[in-house]
């Protein structure tokens, strides 16, 4: 005999409920409702959450004439001493005759007086004790009602909800409505938002007048928008008829849940039903717009590109710089550019990304710049499957998914390029690191260190300093072993010799001899280069401090070296190369030279630093960009303009090709396969992680300015 068959198809609401329930199962906490999972009924007298009072009296009260007399006397006295004092009279009877019917009656009357005196804590204590002893007391119903409302008053909201909701099940008419209202209030304050929503929906269905109904539905909407969770909404709306006054509010919320989950099929089903059942509802215009947006999600404008930038707010200057480069790249093309102002706000970035995807049909999006904005855009890019080419420096942002690309100079790329140059081109093997205690400096120092070790080199010393520091004597001394002299054997031996030689001399001569010996202690320079990942102003102060400690950095000029030999009397000189990051780049000063050269002087000569763009580069593609930019804007571009220009030119090249992509998926594939794009920032290709790889600009500092290391000199340097 076969088991009866049944329709296995789930309704949209039930399917959502099932999916969300399964999703939350792993982190499910014990239910806060009054329903349990144990089907075994409680034994008589057992107290449980589902059965807060025993089913039989735990104390068998007996009649007692003396107790009755005492109760009568207390009642008479309480007429003239009401309130808490009157309650104490009844408690005295209770204490004297605890296991009598009069004692229980006294306990009830004490609870009533405490309740009426607004001493809700003592009222709860009295009623709880009474109901525990005798849940069948003649005034049990009144005691439970007062107990529930007393719990509500003192903030015992979960207890109040359990008591009041159980009473509401057996009440009728106006009393039931009041109990439900109190139960809903208690449930919400207890955090039981699903229960509060269910009660609010029930009350909306019971409303007698339009005004009551309107207020009740408004309460449902308030819970739906700010309190109740996805599962709560799905559970309540599952069996609700469309005629129910709260149905439109709940159903439209359900549609928005589907939208949030990107469940397009159920979204369209829910919205179509909503519009069929409630075409005139106040939410109907929003429902139609949401339905239209869902339909437009697959509609792509193959010549429309979105741009997410902070055009206002504290990052406004960044946004304006990138926008200048993007506009220059798209000038003369039929590519439509739609710019969205993120204001540097994560939420606005998310909204703008959705607008570009749904409303504008953008085939791809450029930007944003800031890390958190870019992460939000990248998550939506992957979710909506819209190619995103971001300008963020945040490491590993492309790991979010295959639709996320990045074209921007990163810390790791700089560290890799400068370490490769020093080790593979210059043959250096030992290094020191001097870095500011800030995110930029710490990340670059760590990345450089890792790259040196990976290439088989060593970092012999590392010192950090405050990001706003202006003197660097201590850090320089520490690098060469002149700070903790007591730990050096040659210094200890020198002290001993001075003490022997100046024995019997006055304190002044001893001090002078000691200072002379201390100054003659040789620096320990066991490194060939120092990496300083800091901005140019700080570098121009650090370099002279290194020279004071006999660290010779301007070693590329033979005449300078000869002068140093004559000055020091040393035939053999230990020289050190300074290495830097893109923060060394500076504007030109009054002399026409970069300010780094003006301020750092000879102490920064012979240094090399890395950057993602160099305005005076001799690379043809860079020169073409700089020339076009100067003609358009009458000024020099920076790194941001250059990367904005190249990113937009990449998209333009793909969109104007003979086999131009017609869909976002096709554009993603085309961008992933882009090789050797010749741009202002170098020949760019995307690797398997969708990171732009390109030879960076290695820049050499001399007293004549900053020049690019030629391709021949850097033939073995690694790419970006």
Task: Summarize the entry for a quick read.
The chain is of the alpha/beta class and 720 residues long.
Quaternary organisation: single chain
Largest sheet: 7 strands, mixed
Overall outline: flat
Secondary-structure arrangement, i.e. CATH architecture of the largest domain: Alpha Horseshoe
| Broad structural category | alpha/beta
> Which parts are unreliable, with pLDDT below 50 for 5 consecutive residues or more?
1-10, 12-50, 715-720
Approximately how much beta-strand content do the residues carry? 5-15%
Number of domains: 4
Strand order of the largest sheet: 7-6-8-9-10-14-15
Q: Give Rg in angstroms.
A: 40 Å
Q: Can you identify the CATH superfamily of the largest domain?
A: Tetratricopeptide repeat domain
Mean pLDDT: 88
Task: Estimate the helix proportion, in percent.
Answer: 40-55%
Instruction: Quote the distance from N terminus to C terminus.
Output: 72 Å
Give the total of beta strands. 15
CATH topology of the largest domain: Serine Threonine Protein Phosphatase 5, Tetratricopeptide repeat
Main CATH class of the largest domain: Mainly Alpha
Determine the number of helices (DSSP H or I, runs of at least 4 residues). Answer: 28
Protein name: Penicillin-binding protein activator
Biased composition (Low complexity): 30-40
Keywords: Signal, TPR repeat
TPR repeats: 104-137
Notes on the structure:
- The chain is an alpha/beta fold and 720 residues long.
- The protein has four domains: 65-254, Alpha Horseshoe (Serine Threonine Protein Phosphatase 5, Tetratricopeptide repeat), CATH 1.25.40; 304-408 and 638-681, Rossmann fold (3-Layer(aba) Sandwich), CATH 3.40.50.2300; 410-479 and 523-611 and 690-719, Response regulator (Rossmann fold, 3-Layer(aba) Sandwich); 483-522.
- It has 28 helices and 15 strands.
- The protein has a seven-stranded mixed sheet, sandwiched between helices. Strands 2-1-3-4-5 form a five-stranded parallel sheet, with helices on both faces. The protein has a three-stranded antiparallel sheet with strand order 11-12-13.
- The two termini are 72 Å apart.
């Amino acid at each position: 005999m076969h088991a009866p068959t049944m329709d296995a198809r789930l309704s949209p609401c039930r399917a959502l409920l099932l999916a969300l329930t399964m999703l939350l199962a792993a982190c499910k906490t014990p239910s806060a409702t009054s329903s349990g999972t144990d089907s075994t009924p409680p034994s008589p007298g057992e107290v449980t959450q589902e059965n807060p009072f025993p089913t039989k009296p735990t104390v068998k009260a007996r009649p007692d004439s003396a107790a009755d007399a005492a109760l009568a006397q207390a009642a008479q006295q309480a007429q003239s001493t009401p309130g808490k004092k009157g309650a104490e009279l009844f408690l005295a009877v209770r204490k004297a005759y605890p296991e009598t019917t009069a004692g229980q009656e006294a306990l009830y009357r004490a609870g009533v007086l405490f309740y009426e005196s607004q001493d809700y804590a003592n009222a709860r204590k009295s009623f709880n004790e009474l109901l525990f002893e005798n849940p069948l007391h003649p005034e049990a119903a009144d005691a439970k009602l007062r107990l529930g409302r007393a719990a509500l008053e003192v903030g015992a909201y979960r207890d109040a909800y359990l008591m009041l909701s159980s009473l509401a099940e057996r009440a009728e008419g106006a009393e039931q409505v009041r109990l439900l209202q109190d139960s809903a209030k208690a449930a919400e304050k207890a955090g039981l938002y699903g229960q509060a929503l269910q009660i609010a929906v029930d009350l909306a269905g019971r409303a007698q007048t339009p005004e009551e109904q309107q207020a009740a539905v408004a309460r449902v909407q308030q819970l739906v928008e700010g309190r109740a969770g996805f599962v709560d909404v799905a559970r309540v709306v599952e069996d609700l008829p469309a005629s129910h006054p709260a149905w439109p509010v709940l159903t439209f919320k359900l549609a928005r849940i589907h939208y949030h989950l990107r469940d397009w099929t159920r979204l369209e089903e829910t919205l179509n039903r909503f519009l069929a059942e409630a075409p005139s509802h106040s939410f109907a215009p929003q429902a139609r717009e949401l339905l239209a947006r869902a339909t437009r999600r697959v509609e792509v404008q193959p010549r429309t590109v979105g741009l997410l930038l902070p055009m206002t707010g504290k990052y406004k200057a960044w946004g304006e710089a990138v926008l200048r480069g993007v506009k220059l790249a798209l000038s003369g093309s039929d590519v439509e550019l739609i710019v969205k102002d993120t204001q540097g706000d994560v939420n606005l970035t998310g909204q703008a990304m959705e607008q570009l995807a749904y409303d504008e049909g953008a085939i791809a999006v450029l930007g944003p710049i800031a890390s958190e904005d870019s992460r939000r855009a990248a998550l939506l890019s992957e979710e909506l499957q819209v190619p995103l080419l971001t300008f963020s420096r945040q490491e590993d942002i492309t790991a979010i998914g295959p639709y996320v690309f990045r074209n921007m100079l990163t810390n790791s790329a700089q560290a890799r390029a400068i370490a490769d140059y020093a080790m593979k081109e210059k043959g250096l093997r030992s290094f020191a690191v001097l870095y500011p205690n800030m995110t930029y400096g710490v990340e670059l120092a760590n990345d450089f260190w890792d790259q040196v070790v990976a290439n088989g080199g060593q970092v012999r010393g590392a010192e950090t300093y405050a990001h706003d520091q202006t003197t660097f004597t201590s850090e320089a001394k520490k690098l060469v072993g002149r700070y903790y002299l007591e730990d050096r054997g040659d210094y200890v031996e020198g002290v001993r010799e001075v003490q022997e030689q100046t024995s019997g001399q006055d304190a002044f001569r001893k001090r002078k001899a000691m200072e002379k010996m201390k100054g003659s202690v040789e620096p320990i320079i066991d490194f060939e280069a120092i990496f300083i990942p800091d901005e140019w102003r700080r570098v121009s102060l650090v370099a002279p401090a290194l020279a004071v400690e006999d660290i010779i950095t301007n070693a590329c000029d033979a005449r300078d070296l000869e002068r140093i030999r004559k000055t020091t009397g040393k035939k053999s000189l230990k020289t050190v190369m300074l290495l830097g990051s893109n923060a060394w780049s500076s504007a030109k000063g009054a002399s026409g030279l970069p300010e780094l050269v003006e301020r750092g002087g000879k102490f920064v000569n012979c240094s090399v630093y890395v950057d993602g763009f160099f305005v005076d580069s001799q690379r043809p593609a860079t020169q073409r960009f700089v020339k076009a930019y100067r003609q358009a804007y009458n000024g020099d571009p920076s790194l941001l303009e250059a990367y904005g220009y190249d990113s937009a030119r990449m998209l333009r090249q793909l969109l104007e090709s003979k086999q131009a992509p017609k869909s976002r998926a096709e554009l993603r594939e085309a961008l992933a396969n882009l090789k050797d794009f010749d741009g202002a920032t170098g020949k760019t290709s995307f690797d398997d992680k969708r990171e732009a790889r390109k030879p960076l600009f290695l820049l050499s500092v001399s007293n004549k300015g900053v020049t690019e290391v030629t391709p021949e000199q850097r033939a073995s340097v690694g790419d970006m």
